[in-house]
Amino acid sequence: MTGLERLMNRLEILYKKRTPRSFRLFRRAQNVMIQGGSHSLRLLAPYPFFVRRASGPEVVDIDGNVYVDYWQGHYANILGHNPVIPDDPPAGEEPDDPSLHTGFEGEDQVKLAEILIRQAGWKGHKVRFTTSGTLAAMYAVMLACGRTGREEVLKIGGGWHGASPLLLKGIAYDRSLGFTKVESAGVPSAFSKKIHTVRYNDSEGLIRFLRRRGEKIACFILEPYLGAGGFIPADREYLQTAREWTSRLGIVLVFDEIISGFRFAPTGVGRLAGVEPDLATFGKAIGGGHAVAAVMGKTDILECLLPRAGRRTAVRFSGGTYSAHPQYMRAGLRMIRHLARHGPEIYPRIAAMGERLRRGIEDAFAAEGIDARCAGRGNDVIPGSSLFMPHFLRVRHEIREAGDVLDPRRADVRMKEEILRLALLTRSVHVVHGGGAVSAAHREADIDRTIEAYRDVARLLNPAVLG
């Protein structure tokens, strides 16, 4: 048994001692639910803890353990768990009926669409709401294909756009296939053959691909800040190259801003970069803690969902039963209004805490002789970032694309995804992918406590200790 295997066994024993009620509830869940849950990332090994309540920077499990949480609702809760937003609605805008879903149109969706367009800085654009990032990305691709009459899609290797079969390729790194592997059974081969990938932040590679195949591509979809692929920002020059060449070849440029929208400023990264895509998807922060996502963009593209004379079919972007749920729209409206009004205080503060945390994590591991590089920083587009994700590099190199951190020959992926997460849980800190998001509810004391937890874990992982 290796030193790491012995450490994992020890951590599992500690974790099980802390969470006996979660263990029993998980055994019940396995009797009635596949894998015992409904979201793969939440089902950590050996079993997940179950949350009883959440407030601000913390969650409390059913065993009474309190964790400083950096998952924060899949990075959606920029103000922390269950925030009390002090801004009261303007006079006359209090809801008349706070009831459950009615299935009718409500006034707040108009107001939310108006403020989203205004904050994005795109005059004359339109919005349609749905309920998840997966659906928003799927509809954006469908709109692009409907608008161009083309069927092929270009995406970033390592880019995650949800579980749509139109985009389930090239997400995880494969030793033999790189970022060209189909990610799921059940994806028709006719779909997978039409999905292509290129490297992030590689303008020359993008141009080479587009020169060769650009006239067949309906859309190029990318995250201007790579999320699950490593918390890596796109260079301004790369985004400008993408805009120039997609315009030249009639390709619809789609920015997936599900994570990045309203995370670094009360707008999207597209506006920060001065690069306007044809379509953009937003989610997470814009819902105020509810299931809200949006496709925003040029009117002539979104109008492809309308039946027109001479067009055989319209794009079926119906939205879904719970699209523009009045309660969700109201929560999203209050959140975006608050971020727009108080952004100058909120964003610099959480960015500064994010930078202190990134430096503290790197220093903690360096003190034990471990090369951990903490991604998530801003760049020439993003002024500061509240996101952090440590990567354990096997070879020192600059982190510019997903392969730099997801290729197991270049980085220790298991250390980040499994060992670090479990070790931090035993020290009352919860992370996903090794890191997460600082919220406005986190305090300097939480950052101190978190850095100390990483120091403890670094000592456990010291090569001399592991033997």
Tell me the number of helical segments per DSSP (H or I, 4 or more residues long): 15
| Shape category | globular
Note the main sheet.
7 strands, mixed
**Number of domain modules:** 2
Question: What structural class should be given to the helix and strand makeup?
Answer: alpha/beta
- Strand numbers in spatial order across the main sheet: 4-12-11-10-7-5-6
- Identify low-pLDDT runs: none
Spatial gap, N to C terminus: 11 Å
How much is the radius of gyration in Å? 22 Å
CATH superfamily of the largest domain: Type I PLP-dependent aspartate aminotransferase-like (Major domain)
Share in helix: 25-40%
CATH fold-level assignment of the largest domain:
Aspartate Aminotransferase, domain 2
Features:
globular, single chain, Aspartate Aminotransferase, domain 2, 2 domains, 467 residues, Aspartate Aminotransferase, domain 1, 16 strands, 4-stranded mixed β-sheet, 7-stranded mixed β-sheet, alpha/beta
Overview of this protein structure:
The chain has helices spanning 3-18, 20-32, 72-75, 107-120, 133-148, 189-192, 203-213, 236-249, 269-273, 299-302, 326-366, 403-406, 413-425, 444-461, 463-466; strands spanning 51-55, 58-61, 66-69, 126-130, 152-156, 195-198, 217-222, 225-226, 232-233, 252-257, 279-282, 293-297, 372-375, 387-392, 429-430, 436-437. The strands form four sheets. Strands 4-12-11-10-7-5-6 form a seven-stranded mixed sheet, with helices on both faces. It is globular, with a radius of gyration of 22 Å. The N and C termini lie close together (11 Å). The chain has two domains: 3-83 and 342-466, Aspartate Aminotransferase, domain 1; 107-336, Aspartate Aminotransferase, domain 2. It has 467 residues and is of the alpha/beta class. The mean pLDDT is 93.
